[in-house]
TrEMBL record:
Pfam families, A to Z: Gly_kinase
Record-given protein name: Glycerate kinase
Native source organism of the sequence: Corynebacterium ihumii
EC number: 2.7.1.31
Membership in a protein family: Belongs to the glycerate kinase type-1 family.
UniProt gene name: glxK
Amino acid sequence: MVSPLDAVPSPKIVVAPDSFKSTATAAEAAEWLAEGVRSVIRDAHIVLTPMADGGEGTSSLFEGERICLPTTTAAGRLTEAEYTFHAPSKTAYIDVAAASGLPAVDEPVPLTGDTYGTGVLIADAQTRGAERIVLGLGGTATIDGGTGILVALGVNPLDQAGYQLKPGGGALEQLAHFDTAKVNVPAGAVEWVLLTDTTAPATGPQGAAHVFGPQKGATRDNVEVLDRGLARLCEVADVDPATPGLGAAGGVGIGITWLSTMLHGDSSHVHILPGARVVADSNGLAEQVADAALAITGEGRFDGQTGTGKVASVVGELAREADSVFAVAAGRFDEQPDEGTIAVTLSETDSVREQLTQAGAEIAVAYLNTSTVQG
């Protein structure tokens, strides 16, 4: 049991974790980490700033009405999904993971999974008055290049013989052209803001299929099929596959970019942005960290993808800019963070709350020891 210490009077501590997949929301993670910190540094001034990077939980961090409606999962099964609609700004915040995410499918569907269910949410948002769609790209079970969204918005991908392709990225190699006779013009013509949690391009060794395919259940052969399919989609859509961030969410940005360009004549209505930075700007994280003694973040796994736009990398950058101590709590560390970072691996207890509370306490003790050493 850690005993309370009072070596540093009333330090300001910012707690800004990502969600821990399906086990803790970002808000819960922040609260529980702070609970652990406060058990050690009782007089700390703690600011909770839940974060997201475009993945699961991003839309819930924005202001507006939470809309829930029936839709389909990546496997085509009926489900319910939520998004946020902010009427004053005519903006809808939608996570692709809400309908098309990995947790919603019982078995991996790398070749056949599609984003149709996300398209249903997009169409619904437009009917409520949304003129801007902020789409969080991350945590999907799909590698369909956004073609499921296109189908939901009235665009049908066809093969050379004129037959509609089967759902999913596994059929994209056969793509010849799109049937746009029934396209939902109002929905497709909105302003698109695509929040990415990666800088990965659409295709190639660092692309959507090779990097994220195995996480979604793709075998080595599946990966090659999917990569060729995305390359074909980019060719037909006249989209540059090397565009940074286009590999997010199984290439969703490819279909969105094609649709918007087809309707407007150029891609000026599509904005691909780093999700964690956008959320940080929205919730004032930079301002909070600027005068903080300690900035704490957390995520399920700290690995090679962390530095490509994940929450931990952004919080770390802000902490370094502010000369604040930086700490990370993670379920596992596949890579070591930068020197000087306080890194705490979550314990193996069954309770996520207990894991995060313990991690917060460990971080607080390590911070106090660091502060004492530095004087």
